Amino acid sequence: MSYKILTINPGSTSTKVGYFDGDKLEFSVNVSHDAAKLAEFAGISDQLPYRRDLILEEIKKAGIDLSQVDAFVGRGGGLLSVEGGTYKVDETILDHARRGANGIQHPAQLGSQLAAEFANQYSKPAFVVNPPDTDEFIIEARMTGIKGVYRQSHLHALNLKETAIRHSNLNGVKYEDKNYVVCHIGGGVSISAHRKGKMIDGNDIVAGDGPMAPTRCGSVPAAQMIRYAYEHPDKKETLSLTTKTGGFVSHLNTSDALDVFNRAEAGDKEAKLIWDTMTYQIIRYIGSMAAVLHGQVDGILLGGGMVHNKKLVADITEACSWIAPVTAYPGEFELEAMAAGAIRVLDGVEEAKVYTGEPCWTPED
């Protein structure tokens, strides 16, 4: 059976919407939101009616009949840590999404809320798939050298797992039977180890971990970072280095990766150094994730916007192909990943999980 699915992925100043007939994307739109209008709302969840009405306008223009949709899928922001999978949206999910139970305020919180709005109106199910707080780490990946401080799973889980699932399907194998190093290389860079269908390790892109990225500092020596914090007492300014003002922004005052690459190719020595450093660090982390998998790696998979850069892919391939074959999947599969998760449940291939409202791991576990 070919199911019709509507997917909703809210971002900072826009909401991506996709309409699928089976696995075929029939319609997509990036609904823009006025920044000044968004600033009028006290909190993220207060934006829901405004974003909903704009989405409905675009859907009406496209001639889509929402009563024919079999399931609605939203990005699952605001939740506590969960095992990967597809979750049916219920009141617990909605409560946590509305208030941002994970302590991170992000428009992705609106994904499940918007999906539920439409689903309730048409008496259809609503889902979230591999939420941003998907956490399948093994205990050794969580531990640090400071008692009471633990590494957390903050990665591009939706795209990472979908890239691995798609690669497996294309090669006639099961994701649950294979080991991969999967990378998302975009505004943030996630490098993750997938063992038999579980994402067992990876860098925390929120906490300043992993490779440098266009807006992120990546891993830095702890003592130097502590000294920096003492010398720069503005906590917000210091924390912003991990997600907004680090990486290319700190060194070159731009987050435009294409601009940095073009400057490097044109002979700008500083731009070349920063670009090459990012590439070097990506390679380093791929190697570390391969070691986590004991060298038993069936493929190194590259996804994300920067993977459109053929030189970047070539440099990573040259450095890492001795570990395993390197395959590039440029761009993102986020809308496709959400639709695919819902279809797996509707087809009975996968059972929808229940969000317990409790983190899947705590230090007491």
UniProtKB/TrEMBL annotation:
Its EC number is 2.7.2.7. GO terms for cellular component: cytoplasm. GO terms for molecular function: acetate kinase activity; ATP binding; butyrate kinase activity. InterPro entries: Aliphatic_acid_kin_short-chain (IPR000890), Aliphatic_acid_kinase_CS (IPR023865), ATPase_NBD (IPR043129), Butyrate_kin (IPR011245). GO terms for biological process: acetate metabolic process. It holds the Pfam family Acetate_kinase. Keywords: ATP-binding, Cytoplasm, Kinase, Nucleotide-binding, Transferase. It catalyses: butanoate + ATP = butanoyl phosphate + ADP. Its main location: cytoplasm. The keyword Kinase applies. It comes from the Bacteria. It is found in: Cytoplasm. Belongs to the acetokinase family. This is Probable butyrate kinase. It comes from Pseudobutyrivibrio ruminis.
